[in-house]
């Protein structure tokens, strides 16, 4: 019972982190039709921002400033690196995204060095639930992730900006003819995705209180995997893929025989799902206009 409950809570917590990062990937792809491979490195930037702002001795303020910094960084990256390539080929945009990723990692190494930095945001301790000892930080991560995903879903479905995002995702040209500012919608999408990545950086620090320039590399790849599994471009799909990947990872790490091959198992699941259902669980087939 203890093992089952702890595994379930840990899988929901980790899956929530992957889902938040995957939401950034899937929203940008769904609206801007590009894969922002620099998105994972925003996690690293957010963690370093918390490291810097913790000098204020106020964890809440440090977190808020980190989210704001990453939000502005996302907007800047979109305007400087991606907006000039709006009409360029997908390959050119992809290469640019990879370049931005390495740029962020290199800048982090120049500013903070290659050694990991220890960051203690807050000591939550542990509590017992039904006789099972659970880390409070894990429960906080799970709760915040659920709230964020629900809030984002309601934002997209119920607000004017959210409906504009759906319109741009369905047909950018028609949305522009209807008076929607496409550039503004894409900028807002990058801002939301970068804010979620900053929160993911916080949750990674709660799990392991250290940050390095490569912190966001593997989480970014796994979150992209989650987005593809769920259906790239689908917000519910990103949530489903993130939770599924978190569950698989937590279960695999508990089994000694397969624990060293956890990453291989996750990526194998991606390959199998793409072979069976190329659009992912909740993805839709799109017809390209010619």
Strand order of the largest sheet: 1-4
Low-confidence stretches: none
Radius of gyration: 19 Å
Q: What is the string of SSEs from the N terminus onward? A: HHHHEEEHHHHEHHH
The proportion of residues forming helix, as a percent range, comes to over 70%
Helix count, per DSSP? 11
Account of the 3D structure:
The structure is a single chain. It contains 11 helices and 4 strands. The protein has 290 residues and is mainly alpha-helical. The chain has a domain at 18-216.
Features of the shown structure:
two-stranded antiparallel ribbon, two-stranded antiparallel sheet, mainly alpha, 4 strands, 290 residues
TL;DR of this structure?
This protein has 290 residues and is mainly alpha-helical. The protein has helices at 2-32, 39-53, 59-82, 90-112, 136-158, 160-170, 172-177, 182-207, 217-230, 235-254, 262-276; strands spanning 117-118, 126-129, 132-135, 210-211.
Topology, element by element:
Blueprint: H1 2-32, H2 39-53, H3 59-82, H4 90-112, E1 117-118, E2 126-129, E3 132-135, H5 136-158, H6 160-170, H7 172-177, H8 182-207, E4 210-211, H9 217-230, H10 235-254, H11 262-276
Antiparallel strand pairs: 1-4, 2-3
């Amino acid at each position: 019972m203890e093992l089952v409950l702890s595994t379930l809570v840990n899988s929901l917590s980790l899956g929530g982190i992957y889902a938040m990062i995957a939401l950034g990937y899937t929203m940008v792809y769904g609206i801007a039709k590009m894969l922002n491979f620099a998105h994972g490195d925003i996690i690293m930037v957010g963690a370093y921002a918390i490291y810097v702002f913790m000098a204020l001795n106020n964890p809440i303020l440090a977190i808020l400033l980190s989210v704001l910094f990453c939000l502005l960084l996302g907007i800047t990256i979109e305007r400087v690196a991606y907006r000039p390539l709006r009409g360029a080929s997908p390959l050119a945009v992809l290469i640019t995204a990879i370049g931005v990723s390495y740029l962020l990692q290199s800048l982090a190494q120049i500013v903070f060095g290659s050694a990991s930095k220890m960051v203690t945001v807050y000591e939550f301790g542990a509590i017992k639930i039904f006789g099972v000892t659970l880390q409070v930080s894990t429960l906080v991560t799970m709760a915040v992730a659920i709230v964020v995903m629900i809030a984002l879903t309601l934002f997209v479905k119920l607000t004017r900006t959210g409906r504009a995002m759906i319109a741009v995702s369905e047909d950018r040209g028609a949305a522009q003819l209807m008076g929607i500012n496409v550039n503004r919608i894409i900028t807002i999408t990058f801002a939301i995705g970068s804010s979620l990545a900053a929160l993911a950086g916080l949750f990674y620090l709660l799990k392991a209180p250290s940050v390095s320039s490569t912190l966001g590399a593997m989480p970014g790849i796994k979150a992209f995997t989650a987005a593809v599994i769920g259906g790239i471009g689908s917000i519910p799909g990103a949530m489903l893929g993130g939770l599924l990947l978190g569950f698989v990872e937590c279960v695999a790490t508990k089994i000694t025989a397969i624990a060293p091959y956890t990453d291989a198992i996750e990526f194998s699941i991606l390959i199998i799902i793409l072979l069976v259902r190329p659009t992912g669980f909740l993805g839709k087939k799109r017809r390209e206009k010619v």
